Amino acid sequence: MKMTPLHQEFVLHFGEMGSRWGINRTVGQIYALLFLSSAPLNADQITEALGISRSNTSMGLKELQSWGLVLRKHLPGDRKEHFTTPDDLWLIVRTLIEERKKREIDPTLSKLRELEMQGPGGDDYAEARIAELREMIEMMTEFYDDMARLETEKLVRLMTYGSRLAGLIDKVGGYLPSTKS
Known about the structure:
GO terms for molecular function: DNA binding; DNA-binding transcription factor activity. By secondary structure, the protein is mainly α. The chain has helices spanning 5-20, 25-36, 43-50, 54-67, 89-117, 124-149, 152-160, 162-171, and strands at residues 41-42, 71-74, 81-84.
């Protein structure tokens, strides 16, 4: 596959962003290449297009498959495995968010709960801040879980109502649980 300047810039950006998101730069580049490819690619094509080692390609593909972000595709008459990304952008975004939650939010929430279970440690202020942070993360996690259960069509509709929902919340504000400021 010959990459155009558009491909190259997108792939390089995803590689850079991947390292900021906690994944290997090469994994981000493999994903970006497959995302932009109109046809499934085999490992040799990926290796050649990105100028990376075959072992890096294999490891990156395995990681992306484990997340459900890359799918295997067999092409008739070709013995090589080919790879592609899901067509549904919402599925991709939901998968990425869920993986970030598992890697970042869930362990933090577990640690905060563990710290609270240890009992009084002699610093009332720190204990109160930990409890407040845990409560906020639990509330956000419950909201995320509710949104994750919504069908994509309903979620999109909900998101398009953004400012109208904020106005509605202002109107019924007295009926909502108060938050500490």
